[in-house]
Amino acid sequence: MARKVGKINTIKADITMYDYMLIGESGLGKTEFLYEFGVKTTGRQDGLLILQFGRENGSDALPAFTDRVADWSDWGEVKETLIEERNTTFKNTKYIGIDSIDELFRLAEEEVVNMHNREARASEGKIKPTKSVNGAYGGYQNGQNKALDIVINDVMDLHDYGYRFFYIGHTKLRSTVDPLTGVEYEQLTNNLLAKYYDGLKDKVYLSVTAYNKRSFETIETVDAKEFGTNKKIKKDVGTGMNSRRVMMFRDTDNTINTKSRLKFIPSGEVEFSANSFIELVTDALEKQVNYYYGNLTQDKKDEMLKQQQEEISQAVSAKLTEVKSLNRDEMLDKIKSKFAELNQDVKESISNIVKKDGATNLLEASDKALESIVKLIG
User: Fold this and answer.
1) Of 176, 165, 24, nearest to 97 (Cα)?
2) Strands 206-225 and 65-69
3) I want to staple 235 with a disulfide (CB 3.0 to 4.6 A). Which of 224, 274, 302, 376 is the partner?
4) Phi, psi dihedrals of residue 151, rounded to the nearest 5°
5) Biggest alpha carbon distance in the chain?
């Protein structure tokens, strides 16, 4: 019998039930913002786990619940632990903070090169090795597509276990072309390839851009030379600069790259702080609920929230207990049926689980090891 399809969605009324992204200038305080968001929304130090990828060190001076991810192999082990210990070490953890998406994709690109070269070695000369993601899997951005795939697959796997994500990254000024008019304009946006940023931004409900808002007491236009050439140009020079930290949820002028799926999130600049973010998003969610359901009583809102939390908890429990309902032969069949489609880093994680178990192959692995593998591959 086919499964039942379709149900009326209930708007998620709690701020911790959504994924977010924050991009901003280096040194603006994004990691501190992330830490404060986690503590203030969950009421716990371990409510948000900050994972520092690669070369990031933004949480070193914060009393945060944090860990480092050195490379993609390390990320595979972290993912495995987050799943294995969902009901123990991470039972109170609602959020995984990714610091930063720049380093996350750098490590993913390194892994794609390694994956390609492993396949090249196994092909006995049929596939040429590469030193760059641009040359991986035949080029033409196939390497970048692979990098995006392995990132999205991993974060969505963890999503199934009840984790929500808060990504942070860096900004740059970039020329952008309007797809309808063909007009080029300058936009403050992310520091990533558009493919990576758009792919990840598609998975969040809010993408916020933070920056220093600078003002000058005097601005004078002077003669100057264009940087790197002898071409004469006019340049505005300012003195007496003041600066304040702001962020933007929605930009009607489209000069700041943002995204919101919330109808009542404000446009324009607001104070850059965790308190301001929480207040404005909470207010937007409440207005969203009132808009579609009318002005509900507090008891009704509490009942709605409790039901949603129970649904998430039940879904996570079902995911965690799904493996236990399989017998040994069913677990082996599931692993074998999915093995060919797994990327190389997952295959290596499986190999490591088998080795740690003291076995030489899947058939010799214990039931506990097989359960770990099934949880890993989803």
Assistant:
1) 165
2) unpaired
3) 224
4) -70, -55
5) 78
Residue 358 region, left (φ>0) first, then alpha (ψ -120 to 50), else beta?
left
Half-sphere exposure of residue 35, counting CA atoms within 13 Å on the CB side? Answer: 16
Q: Tell me the pTM.
A: 0.80
List helix spans (H) across the chain: 30-42, 72-84, 101-122, 142-159, 194-201, 274-293, 298-322, 328-339, 344-356, 367-377
Residue with tokens 């049929």: 126
Cα separations in angstroms, 14 against 103, 264, 265, 278, 279: 29, 15, 15, 11, 12
Residue 111 CB-density burial (10 A; 0-12 exposed, 13-18 middle, 19+ buried): buried
Closest to 256 measured CA to CA, from 189, 182, 353: 189
Number of residues in the chain: 378
Amino acid at the residue 181: T
- 324 contacts 347 by C-beta, under 8 angstroms: no
| 3-state SS, residue 189 | strand
Q: At what angle do helices 30-42 and 274-293 cross, to 10 degrees?
A: 50
Count of other CB atoms within 10 angstroms of residue 101: 24
From 326, 340, 338, select the one nearest 371 (Cα to Cα). 326
Q: What is the pLDDT along the chain (378 residues), one digit of tens a residue?
A: 678 899 888 888 899 999 999 998 888 899 999 999 999 999 999 999 999 999 888 888 899 999 999 999 899 889 989 998 998 999 999 999 999 899 999 999 999 999 899 888 888 888 899 999 999 999 889 999 999 999 999 999 899 999 999 999 988 666 666 555 665 545 566 667 888 988 998 999 999 999 888 665 555 665 666 655 667 666 655 454 567 889 989 877 666 778 888 999 998 889 999 999 999 999 999 999 999 998 888 898 888 888 888 888 888 888 877 766 778 888 888 888 888 778 777 788 888 888 887 778 888 788 888 888 887 786
Rounded distance, CA 364 to CA 354, Å? 8
